[in-house]
Amino acid sequence: MHERQLDIETKDGRMSTFIVHPERGGPCPVILFYMDAPAIREELRDMARRLATAGYYVMLPNLYYREGVMELGRIPMDSQAPERARMMQLMGSLTIGKIMDDTGALLAFAGADGAAGKGKIGAVGYCMSGQFAINAAARYPDRIAAAASIYGVRLITEAPDSPHVVAKQAKAELYFACAETDRWMPLEHVEPLRRALAAAGANAEVEIYPKTEHGFAFPARPVYDKAAAERHWERLFALFARNLR
C-alpha cells in the first residue's frame, strides 16, 4: 500500500489528510472517509487501510484543522472530563457548509492526482460525520455514487441541510447503519428517518444492528462488537463495489 500524510489547501487553511491506496493497479476509485468526533488516530488510519486493500484511493481528512487540532488522544468516558468537553467544543465548531467546502477541496486534489480514479466516488462518515457523507452525496450528485452513514447523528433536524431533507438531491445509493442502543440517534428516530427517505424518493436503506451500541465498529471502543463490525464492512464493500466499479 502507498500512504501519504499531506496538506490540502482549502479556503480556510491547510487540511492535513491521510491518503492510502494500492501501489499498483490504479488509478483507483476514490472514497472520502470522514472522521468521528474523537479525531484522527491510528484506529481510523487502519480502517482507511482496510478500505484501500479492496482497491480504493481513500482520503481521511482532519476536519479540525481550522482549530489547529489533529489528534486528541484518549477520551475519558467521564462526561465531566475536560478532554471530553474539548472534543464536544471541536465537534460544535463544524458545520455542514464548512465540510462541504472541504469536500470540494478533496475532490479537486483527487482530480489532479494520477493515482485517483476520475469516475464515481464513495463517501462514508461515522458518528458526527454520517451527516457529512450524506450531504456530500447531495452537494455533488454527479460525482458521489455511494454514501454511508455509520451510527450517524443529527440525521433528522429542523435545518434545511438535514440529511433526511437533502437526500432527495442525491443520485447516490445511500446506506444508514444504526445501533440499536444509541442516545445520539435513538430508535424512535430511525423509523421517521426511513419514512422521510422513502417519501423523498431516495435510493436508501436504513438498517438497525441488533444488540449494538453507538461506536460498535471501532475496535478500540469498549462497545466494539466484532460480528456487527464485520457486518458493516461487508455492507460497505458491497455498496462501493456496486456503485464505483
Provide keyphrases for this structure.
245 residues, alpha/beta, Rossmann fold
Structure, explained:
By secondary structure, the protein is α/β, with parallel strands linked by helices. The chain has a single domain, classed as Alpha/Beta hydrolase fold, catalytic domain (Rossmann fold, 3-Layer(aba) Sandwich). The chain is built from seven helices and eight strands, in the order E-E-E-H-E-H-H-E-H-E-H-E-H-E-H. It has helices at residues 42-52, 82-92, 96-111, 130-139, 163-166, 187-200, 226-244, and strands at 2-10, 13-21, 30-34, 57-61, 121-126, 144-150, 173-181, 204-213. It has an eight-stranded mixed sheet with strand order 1-2-4-3-5-6-7-8, sandwiched between helices. It is globular and about 45 Å long. The two termini are 19 Å apart. 44% of the residues are buried. The mean pLDDT is 96.
Overview in brief:
The chain has helices spanning 42-52, 82-92, 96-111, 130-139, 163-166, 187-200, 226-244; strands at 2-10, 13-21, 30-34, 57-61, 121-126, 144-150, 173-181, 204-213. By secondary structure, the protein is α/β, with parallel strands linked by helices.
Topology:
Layout (H helix, E strand, L loop, with lengths): L1 E9 L2 E9 L8 E5 L7 H11 L4 E5 L20 H11 L3 H16 L9 E6 L3 H10 L4 E7 L12 H4 L6 E9 L5 H14 L3 E10 L12 H19 L1
Parallel strand pairs: 3-4, 3-5, 5-6, 6-7, 7-8
Antiparallel strand pairs: 1-2, 2-4
